[in-house]
Write a structure and sequence with these properties.
Length: about 100
């Protein structure tokens, strides 16, 4: 539900409504400015969400490796001090859609 009241009211729109607005306002120079602004906001949000997902994957990988005992880590050739580095590499590889390479 969108409330477009501008006088003392609450003006809220959903994100899809805001992001979809660029198609409706493309006519004329001011429409182009608004469309570019909306696109810049969209790109910024995408970047923030990608960063959050990267941090989440890093945390999940780090927690999974940290839960392993020292003998298991030794079996797979990992020292406990390597976990933050490995978690970052795994997250980077997943973020770039490239194969994960063991350190």
């Amino acid at each position: 539900m969108t409330n477009n009241s501008t006088r003392g009211g609450d003006s809220r729109s959903t994100l899809p409504e805001i992001l979809g607005a660029s198609a409706l306002i493309q006519a004329g120079p001011s429409g182009e400015v608004v469309a570019r602004t909306v696109e810049a906001v969209r790109q910024g949000l995408r970047s923030v969400l990608t960063g959050i997902e990267h941090l989440r994957r890093r945390r999940v990988t780090s927690e999974a490796l940290s839960d392993l005992d020292d003998a298991t880590l030794k079996d797979i050739g990992v020292q406990r001090s390597d976990i933050p580095f490995i978690a970052g590499r795994v997250s980077d590889a997943q973020n770039d859609n490239r194969p994960t390479i063991a350190a």
